Amino acid sequence: RDLVLDFPIRLRKQNKVDAGFEYTDKAGENPITGFIRSDYRHLILPSDYLSLKIQVAYQNQWGIQGYSVRYFQPWLFNWVPLAVNVGSWQETRSEFLTKDLSSQSRVAFNNVRSGSDVTVVWMPLDDLKWTWRYLHESVEPKANIPSYLIRSLSWGMLYQTVQDSRDPRNGVLWSLTQEIGGRLGDIELGGLHFQRTVSQLSGYWDLHPDHMVAARWMWGTFVPHSTGTFTFENEGFVLGGPNTLRGYRETAPPFLGNTQSLLNIETRHRLSSLFTGVLFWDIGYAGSGEVNVLNAPYRSSFGLGVRFSSPVGPLRFDVAYGQEWMIHFGLGHVF
Fold it and tell me: How far is CA 35 from CA 30, 104, 121, 139, 276, in A?
């Protein structure tokens, strides 16, 4: 009287190709810069994927400016509950020196960053992830600035109860990352000697079926122990632009330094099945020393925006006022 059906199930491959503009060249040497990326899923085992990315730039003609290769396996050999992520890259990035804190005419440098990393993620619970990462990267400025090497070990924790990260409605997200470079106790890693701590806490509250409130607080500190080495913003922090202080230009940020504190608050109201209206307020500060919560010279911005639901996530349009009126476009929520 029992019937048993036994049949194999194969995962369908979903390879894809992306292309778009990657960043604004602050140094002004490559007016048009973008990328082409292709993802190949189920390459060796079911569930893994390989991502290939080419960085292109146009000045007088199109040319290849950099590349990155990344392989990801969510479960090691589909048996051990450890995710493994291995990457290698050589990319050109436009960055500010974090020492230029008080200069209003900051100079941006086009740097070549080449490196590789290995990341292991352990998921003991559905809402909790632990991460360990080894990074080996060289930073070579295309200018008369000394290059430096980064060899670091880091660990991180992510606690997340948000169900849909593309369009969160309820839950919290808390992340904490500690990175040590150059020296780990008595072990000499080489390169720049530093410590970095970054934390983010986000909360989402669904007050009504069509209305919700979201808030994000970010804090970070970068402590370089190596003397006589100028580091760039990728090691420190920069505030300004469409993802932090939306009323300020990303190419002329109001804050640049080794310590940051940032608060974003949004109210989101669903206008229809496709459109969501947003009111937001941003306030933050970054500097060379520890942030004094009471006396720091904070900058703030406010504005409104619209989110359009699409198959790839919300399309973002924001109008903000801080130092001046700014218009931002993007994909996905700011947080």
Answer: 13, 30, 27, 20, 29
Taking alpha carbons only, the member of 249, 246, 258 closest to residue 283 is: 246
**How many other CB atoms sit within 10 Å of the CB of residue 174?**
14
pLDDT tens across 143-202, in order? Answer: 788 889 999 999 999 999 998 888 888 999 999 999 999 988 888 888 899 999 999 999
Contact between 111 and 140 under an 8 Å Cβ cutoff? The reply is: yes
Residue position matching structure tokens 């960043």:
23
Residue percentage of the chain with pLDDT more than 70: 91
Report how far residue 331's alpha carbon sits from residue 206's, in angstroms, rounded to the nearest whole number.
Answer: 22
Q: Give the Cα separation of 178 and 299 in Å (integer).
A: 27
Buried b (16+ CB within 10 A) or exposed e, 290-300: ebeeeebebbe
Q: 29, 100, 32, 34: which is closest to 252 by C-alpha?
A: 100
Q: What is the mean pLDDT of the chain?
A: 87
- Which 3-state string (H, E, C) describes the chain? CCCCCCCCCCCCCCCEEEEEECCCCCCCCCCEEEEEEEEEECCCCCCCEEEEEEEEEECCCEEEEEEEEEEEECCECCCECEEEEEEEEEEEEEEEECCCCCCCCCCEEEEEEEEEEEEEEEEEECCEEEEEEEEEEEEEECCCCCCEEEEEEEEEEEEECCCCCCCCCCEEEEEEEEEEEEEECCEEEEEEEEEEEEEEEEEEEEEECCEEEEEEEEEEEEEECCCCCCCECCCCEEECCCCCCCCCCCCCCCEEECEEEEEEEEEEEECCCCEEEEEEEEEEEEECCCCCCCCCCCEEEEEEEEEECCCCCCEEEEEEECCCEEEEEEECCCC
Residue with tokens 């593309």: 166
In the structure encoding, which two tokens stand for residue 54, read together?
A: 């080419």
